[in-house]
Amino acid sequence: LIVEGNVVTGNVSAGHATRKGVYEIKYKQSNTVLSGSDYAVPVSFWMPFNGGIGLH
After folding, report:
1. pLDDT digit string, tens, across residues 1-47
2. Which of 19, 20, 24, 43 lies in disulfide reach of 56, CB 3.0 to 4.6 Å?
3. Residues ≥6 apart with Cβ < 8 Å to 55
């Protein structure tokens, strides 16, 4: 399955833009929490495709 669509690609102004490229979704998690050193955000889905980068 190949899908093309519009997305928001990171926080460009903070220097966190998503790198351009062709990626493969590794898996899908439902109802999970994305967390870092100063945040924890519940999301209804998470689909990583490049390490800590993914769709949510």
Report:
1. 787 888 777 888 988 888 888 889 999 999 999 998 999 999 999 99
2. 43
3. 7, 25, 45, 46, 47, 49
In the 8-state DSSP scheme, what is residue 52?
T
Does residue 29 contact residue 42 with C-beta atoms inside 8 Å?
Answer: no
Question: What sign for the dihedral angle of Cα 15, 40, 29, 8?
Answer: negative
pLDDT at 16: 84
Q: What is the pLDDT of residue 11?
A: 84
Query: Is this structure's pTM higher than 0.85?
Result: no
